[in-house]
Structure formats: C-alpha cells, structure tokens
C-alpha cells in the first residue's frame, strides 16, 4: 500500500511538473510573440487600398460626367434620327 501511494505521489508530481513546464513555455512564447515589433505593413496596405478607392471613385465620376453630358445626348439624338421614318 505504501508503494502504491509513493507511485501515485510520484506520478502526480511528474504530471504537475509537466503542466508547470508547459504553462511556462506557453507564457514565454506568448511574451515573445507579443513583444515583437515586426509587422506586415498594415498601415501601408490601408493607404494603398484608400488610394485605390479614391482613384476609382474619381475615374467613375469622370466617366459618368463624360457619358452624361457628351455621349448620351448625341446617342439619344442619333437613335431618334434612326427611327424617324417621316424625315
């Protein structure tokens, strides 16, 4: 019975040490990852996306103005002339 108790105590001690070492390793890795200051350039990526959106909006506005004032009136005029069978 005494041998069984010693074996159980040794096994529990071994498992407790293993858990403690695992927790310490995890804490060390977490601290190491959080203390790193290297990044993928998130700000640079955000600025690139913002520039692309602004340029796209400007291009779209320019095309809308071009089609709205120049192309569409002449297009509707040509269509009316094309279907004007009397004239």
Overall description:
With 87 residues, this protein is mainly α. Helices cover 86% and strands 0% of the residues. The longest helix is centred in the last third of the chain and has 41 residues. It is rod-shaped and about 120 Å long.
Topology readout:
Elements: H1 2-35, H2 42-82
In short:
The chain is mainly alpha-helical and 87 residues long.
Q: What number of structural domains do the residues give?
A: 2
- What's the tally of helices? 2
Radius of gyration: 37 Å
Main structural class = mainly alpha
Provide tags for this entry.
2 domains; Flagellin-like protein; membrane; mainly alpha; transmembrane; 87 residues; transmembrane helix
